[in-house]
Amino acid sequence: MKQHLIELVSAALDSLKQAGDIPTDHQTHLVIERTKNREHGDFACNVAMTLAKIARCKPRDLAEKLVSALPASDRVRQTDIAGPGFINFHLHNQAWYQVVRDILSEGERYGLSDIGANKSIQVEFVSANPTGPLHVGHGRGAAYGATVADLLEAIGYKVHREYYVNDAGRQMDILATSVYLRYLDLCGEEVRFPVNGYKGDYVWDIAASLHRKHSDALRHTMLEMLTDVAADESENDGDKEAHIDGLILNTKQLLGDENYRDVFNQGLEQILENIKQDLKEFGVVYDEWFSERILTDSGAVERAIERLQNAGHLYKDKGATWFRSTDFGDEKDRVVVRDNGQTTYFASDIAYHINKLERGFDQVIDIWGADHHGYIPRVKAALTALDEDADKLKVLLVQFAILYSGGQKMQMSTRSGEFVTLRELRHEVSNDAARFFYVMRKCEQHMDFDMDLAKSQSSDNPVYYIQYAHARVISVINQLKDKGMTWDAQAGQQQLALLTQAHETELMINL
Q: Considering only CA atoms, which of 361, 362, 360, 364 is closest in space to residue 376?
């Protein structure tokens, strides 16, 4: 229906262009929207207000000219002008009958289209650090990202679903060190665990797998190295971050490159396999799991930094290398190489997005948690500085879901080990119910996920309400059989004019 109205307004605009009321070379983006109140019509268009300045005419006067130039349509009952110049369309009931015919004719293909014209879009979503199982907070990004990808595919885009695996960097080193300390516990050693290590039970599970693989072979007699670090975390003013960094450094020196990599990979592979299984069972399947380590090992991160350096966008300060991102709209400059020589996550992000564009996608969509909103201007700034097309990148932000059970808010912290896993949630309320709850609200809205409501069998539970409606439909069909009656689609379509009740019209409008 929207497309039909767009065609009508476009024809009216062409008439005004021919009459000289609007410049002939002006390209107009038409927006037709549903009205919030049907008393004001079924659809509204604001084109008269957007073109008033160009037409050198008052919005209401331009709206009157447009309404006068609209072609006749058997679907439009009345057109009027409201407020400063909105054009409201009131439709005949018969305008909605066509949707019934379309659904019966197209069946499962109803709603599909080729608007995307097979253009390629990469959708990257979830991409949680493989430092622990997916929890309830990650579930919303998974459900939303999968839905975005499916919808784009349904309208003709070629969609590439991707998970960015952060398998390099400091957080993974913290995980590896946490696993090794738990492994030493299993070997009978008493080692104080850092307050900001990964504390979840899953770390014990990884350590147990490591112990089954190596027995006590990775146990060392020089364990005092693990506690002989530069910073102490025991006091209130202790530097916890410096302490964990010292533990990481000493663990690497104690184990050596080969054994440390074995501990590192044990944690990475076990958690990543868990994540893949969780998402697959949740109905979320990826075309590619892209490794951050590939960017580092291939030199892509260094090349990105070199390009910024050669373009004159980097400077040194206090031993660190900074990207002058404020020149491109960011609120402050960003570090790409720390004072210890390590590249930052941001440097990897720059290399990753260059890699995305180099792969030739027409559009790149990142779906991030709302806490990453500050990353958008800095990533776009880097792409612009490198003469890449930053407009190809679109970032959608998703608020984390807050889980309630028994009226109590459940905590979500991977580092502390206090969280409800996505797997636990799925087992409690089912995959379909969980995904439905996750996508009920706009992604930028805060969401309270009430586990008790999702499991309840009452009309307050939207999932149960839909299941009940489906059961009623099946009941009607079964009664036809029981009463020896049949349904004939062609005969039904000849009687569509009987659909005059308010709830019938509302249903057709929604369809």
A: 364
| Side-chain-side CA neighbours of residue 169 (13 Å) | 21
Determine the average pLDDT of the residues in 466-485.
Answer: 92
Strands of 27-144 (E only): list them.
Answer: 32-34, 43-45, 76-82, 86-91, 120-124
Of 270, 286, 355, 269, residue with least CA distance to 127:
286
As a whole number, mean pLDDT of residues 469-481 equals: 93
Q: Has residue 229 got a pLDDT over 70?
A: no
Residue 489's alpha-carbon distances to 70, 103, 105, in angstroms, are 35, 11, 10
Q: Which residues of 250-289 are buried (b: 16+ CB within 10 A; e: fewer)?
A: bbbebbeeebbebbbebbbebbbebbbebbeebebebeee
C-beta separation of 144 from 125 below 8 A = yes
Residue 43 scores a pLDDT above 90: yes
- Whose tokens are 């960094």? That residue is 245
Matching residue, tokens 């062409």 = 14
Residues 407, 417: Cα–Cα separation, whole Å: 21
**Nearest in space to 50 (alpha carbons), one of 33, 75, 31:** 31
What order do you get walking across the sheet with 447-450 strand by strand? Answer: 408-409, 401-405, 447-450
| Tens-digit pLDDT profile for residues 330-339 | 999 999 999 9
- At residue 266, what is the residue type? Q
Tracing tokens 């957080």 back to the chain, one arrives at: 171
Quick one: pLDDT at residue 235? Answer: 47
Extract the tokens encoding 197. 């290590």
CB 128 within 8 A of CB 289: no
Using alpha carbons, select from 403, 471, 395, 396 the residue that is nearest to residue 437: 403
